[in-house]
Prior knowledge:
This protein is mainly α. It contains 26 helices and no strands. It has two domains: 65-74 and 285-600, Orthogonal Bundle (Farnesyl Diphosphate Synthase); 108-275, Alpha/alpha barrel (Glycosyltransferase), CATH 1.50.10.130. The longest helix is centred in the middle third of the chain and has 32 residues, at 277-308. It starts with 38 loop residues before the first helix and ends with a helix.
Amino acid sequence: MAASIITMKMLIIPNNTTTQNLDIFASKKKTLRLRCISSSATAAATACCSASFQHAPPRRSGNYGPSLWDFDYIQSLNTQYAEERYLRRASELKVEVKKILVQEKELSTVEELLELIDDLQRLGISYHFEDEINQMLGCCMSRHMHGERITLRERKGICTLQLLNSDSSENMALASPKVFDCFRNEKGDFDPNLGNDTKGLLQLYEASFLSTPGEKTLDLAREFATNFLQKYPNEKIDENLSLLVRHALELPIHWRVERPNARWFIEAYEKRPDVNPLVLELAKLDFNIVQATHQQELKHVYEWWKQTGLAEKLPFARDRMVECYLWSVGYFFHPEDGYPRIMTAKLNALITVIDDIFDIYGTLQELQLFYNAIQRWDVEAIHQLPNYMQICYMALYNFINETAYEVLKQQGRLIIPHLRKSWEDLCRTYLQEAEWYFTGYTPTLEEYMNNAWISISAPLTLSHTYFVVANPIENEVVGSLHKYQDVVRYSGTILRLADDLGTSQAEMERGDVAKAVECYMNERGGSREEAEEYVRYLIDETWKKMNEGVAVAADDSAFLQDFVRIAADIGRTAQYFYQHGDGHGIQTPQIKQNIPTLLFQPIF
Length: 604
């Protein structure tokens, strides 16, 4: 991995903004500095805090319900798909599907090859056939380079190539937006006659989400395809295609999480008249086998969660261990990524609890003391904390040591200072938001976002992720981790804005610092609907920057490509959890329905 991960500039607002976005950050930047806690201030805060313990100050409540899946239920999970007979059958099916791929490469058209690759990707089984898929993509490229015209319907290949994270410069050339120019008239507009091809328009729509900053062709392609797809009567297209159109308009595949999308697509694929029975059987069986692995990992993290005592001792905080684990599945969806999934699930649980301490339960004096203890990383510092904070502090302290111990044992590297630095940065931004809330200050959108992309925890997650998955750990990379390169900021920005869209209204009702929506409304005087639309625009613009980051990473080391992919997957998982509201805290009906199908119920 290169020392400078990515050096693009982070601009929340592009230079060519529309009139509704002009001057959003024109107001002069006003930064509230965290006050330094001197020894005398600490003593005063301790005294004040002690008094507050005795008088039991009023506390806010997030009104979070208990976990939907308790310890006993998780420990009782049992599935037959971990048995040897299913593993043996899956191996047989992979051999048969490989034979199909070899045959298709020789006999099929470019369109058919790209559709088959896309099916394997959406079914969640393409990781078994990476060599065969690369050969098929090379075949498509060879035909294209030798003059075979690529049709509109074959634009699906553009999306496929990127989603497979191809690092081939030849394949990237096929994905260039310039290939769309042949479908535009002399005025630069897309030919209206193309609207008669619904399947091609759907592929064009999906590919348009690979746009990068300043890219006009793909933006026009999206507008063109969206208008036709939204207006096209569903009765004029077949039922299966109609299902795909609705799914794409709700959220494009480029923004979707691998595992939930695979579950959905397996059921859609089964209804198709051209379904390949061997491919379908493998997709179902592979999903169930991986689900069995997830269940064993869930049992492990639930054991750890129960041992911490945090759910019992801190009843005000969200008890969301299953959800925390599902977040980690969003970043690490390959079966062999068990250790990163487990450690990231634990990390997510601790982030959730500490976030609730700062956002809901703690007084400002208590929060200042907690941040001071985080800065010192001295177990003796917990004597200044109330009991509920002592338990949380020790759980965090032990988790950092557990993570560092494994790295020291495996690689001989001491990473405790780097892990601690990430938590210091996170808690500093938590405290900034607490100060804004307790002083009644509404920040500008720029002030808010400069703090919020860190307070949403993406930088901390990515720094921990590096140490969990990198082997070997590289000095140059470690030195750059806390400089927070652009892709880290993009990841945090998407996560933050998606979170705010799903949760801000409920958080304002209980009492919390203004979020992105409220900051915009306060600064610009617009309605909530206008503010939410603007936040969606910011998400879209940030995805363009992320796409550019992915393209830059394609020319660098293999680990950099993985790091950027994880950064992007954090954004995708955020949009999954917050698409219909607060799927992490309040647990939306969609999440309540989806989690059992992903983690507990096999596909038959």
